[in-house]
Amino acid sequence: MVTVDLLRHGELEGGVRYRGCVDDPLTEEGCRQMDRVWQHVREDIDVIVSSPLQRCALPASRWAAARGIPCIIEPRVSEMHYGAWEGKTAAQIRRQWPGMLERWRRDPSGMRPPQGESPEELRQRLQQWWQSCIEVHAGKHVLLVAHSGSLRMLLALILQAPIAMTRRIEMPYACWSRAGATQEHAWLEFFNRRC
Q1: Best label site of 15, 49, 64, 136, fewest CB within 10 Å?
Q2: How large is the average pLDDT for residues 136-143?
């Protein structure tokens, strides 16, 4: 069995935008938000897995070094690539692609931001990572530091839910959930705690 704590990064410089590859830094408050969660879980964690983007990787690396545990930078848990939507606000996307964002927010299944990644592609790479996590980290407590899009999709996988469910999951900055898994099945222990 593996236990995986899922932590979304904290608040970012530049406000709310679609950022899959755009690597904006955390605000000071965003750092504090994440550190508060780390204080709750640090004694339990055996290994940290992080998205490569600095908003996840910098705090994850710092925590791992302080505890003397491994920090694995894992591209498969990166945020969805939003293509032409990258760095744009919802208002900017609505102006340039009328109606598309509304359809996306109802159910992104079968859709793709222009020049971006599809939800099905995101789900596939997360499924590959999840299976390897269960095998490689059996008996361990893992902290996964990632993004709202990738974590929503991972939760849908864990709960065997359709892609449309990802649009019905609230995921505030620095929220923290816990899942468990064996080779046979997975479960959600708690969801979206805040510190």
Answers
A1: 15
A2: 98
Structural domains counted in the chain:
1
Q: Tokens for 158?
A: 């864990």
2-52 residue pLDDT tens: 999 999 999 999 999 999 999 999 999 999 999 999 999 999 999 999 999
User: Of all helices (H) and strands (E), which one includes residue 40?
Assistant: helix 28-41
CATH number of the domain bearing residue 46: 3.40.50.1240
Work out the average pLDDT over 104-133.
Answer: 97
H/E segment holding residue 176: strand 176-181
What pLDDT is recorded for position 96? 97
- Is 23 within 8 Å of 9 (Cβ atoms)? no
Domain that holds residue 132: 2-193
* Structure token pair of residue 149: 């899009």
pTM over 0.90: yes
Cα–Cα separations (whole angstroms), residue 81 to 92, 113, 143: 17, 8, 23
- Single-letter residue type at 143: L
Name the one residue in this structure whose structure tokens are 């899009």.
149
Q: Which helix (H) or strand (E) holds 56?
A: helix 54-67
- From the CA atom positions of the chain, what is the Rg in Å? 16
